Amino acid sequence: MTEAPKKIEAISVFDMLKIGVGPSSSHTLGPWRAARNFLSKLRDKDRLDKVTSIEVDLYGSLSLTGKGHATDIAVLMGLTNADPQTCDIAEIPETVDYITKQRLLQLDGVYLIDFDPATAIRFNRNFLPFHPNGIRFKAVLNDSKVIFETYYSIGGGFFVQKERKRAAKQRAIFECFPRPILKATELQAYCERENKPVSQIVLENEEYLNDPAEIDHRLKDIWDVMLDSMYIGCHTEGILPGGLKVRRRAFDTHQRLKKGAEYSNKEEWIDAIRGTEVKFREILKWVSCFALAVNEVNASLGRVVTAPTNGSAGVIPAVLMYYLVIENHQADFTHIKKFLLVAGEIGALFKKGATISAAMGGCQAEIGVSSAMAAGALTELMGGSPAQVLMASEIAMEHHLGLTCDPIAGLVQVPCIERNAMGAIKAINACEMALDSDAKNAKVPLDKVIDTMWQTAQDMNSKYKETSTGGLAVNVALSDC
């Protein structure tokens, strides 16, 4: 009799790589998606047209850094049922301005209700018991009935309504892959037993959930948004919003690096970079430029791919772009697909065994995880074995352990944008170290570094977990900027 597959949470690559709006996956995309879910619950019970008022309470980190992370804007957009993946970014300020000035909200894009954001969205400094990112919606109906729904934004655009117990205990089950994977050792075992690379194991699991053509279509959409955010960031100058007066740096760096190259679209841009003679220092600058560009777009409420979060959105596209324009000029979608599949699976290992939420684990859970994802993915494209893929991911995370989240003024700008550049460089270095090593001699398995990351997250003081109550956030004043 065939043994039933283990009941392990199946996290899709498309869970780890989501298209959304900046600046934060946990503070912007998560609350946005939660608001839309609240609407769907009201809609399913035929209550939307009966709503007379809506109130929203933000708790903990969502409150402490909510203004800087545009959480209130995300809530407004979510309540209008705008889709963060497809909505017109340019219309967001107009929508918010209308709601704020008219004190009217078009609920679900249909039902007009009185709504004053200044009083209807409350920032509560206290934390709810389960998770630092709590949000509670209250709807009053025309028959005086009151509906409450509480959500927790747990990082990467994910949200939950119930506590999910950690790895050693029973886990939530969304689907069950034919090759269930909880640990890196299990992933490696599948690869070695079936003599397949990591990307192929991941792909065959994904095909259990999605048609192959759909997988390709969605991965192409993801890469297109990544490329678009790099292109826009490299061609946009000025000051980022929010009050820190941070100057966009990708534009100036790009102007110096492109050396007069001419192009008219993103595809020609890639070819132009490939045709530029690049020295070692310039390679570092190009990688940093790509990462900075994405996160400058993110910081200005632009569209990016959570990878695995918005705050770390620049690492993976920067490293993938490095491969395309520096390492392999003949690379095509097949390589991009493999890269994204491997990166998504590495991210899923961290989500299952630790966290991808800075409010839970500090910046090690964002930049550290994204660097590990990129390092492993690059290693496969560079010809590394599955064991070397996991080794590269371990090396990248090992050197991000303990990294705190201390954004100045609660904005995803300083030090967040620069950290993406550093994470990308570390990913490339980790890849090279793994490729030059015999993975059998690795002293620290990836599973151990994931466990260590989670232990470090639990020990970390809350003021270093996206609350802007410690570190640079309190030692650098707005007046210093």
Total number of beta strands: 9
Report the β-strand fraction as a percent range: 5-15%
Q: Into which percent range does the helicity of residues fall?
A: 40-55%
Structural class: alpha+beta
Point out poorly predicted stretches: 164-174
Describe the global form: globular
**Order of strands across the widest beta sheet?**
5-2-6-7-8
On the 0 to 100 scale, the average pLDDT is 93
The largest sheet, given as strand count, sense and whether it forms a barrel, is: 5 strands, mixed
**SSE order, as H and E?**
HEHEHHHEEHEEEEHHHHHHEHHHHHHHH
Question: What can you see in these coordinates?
Answer:
Helix 10 packs antiparallel against helix 12. The longest helix is centred in the middle third of the chain and has 23 residues. The chain contains 20 helices and 9 strands. The N and C termini lie far apart (67 Å). Strands 5-2-6-7-8 form a 5-stranded mixed beta sheet. The protein has a two-stranded antiparallel sheet with strand order 1-9. A two-stranded antiparallel sheet has the order 3-4. It has 481 residues and is of the alpha+beta class. Helices cover 49% and strands 11% of the residues.
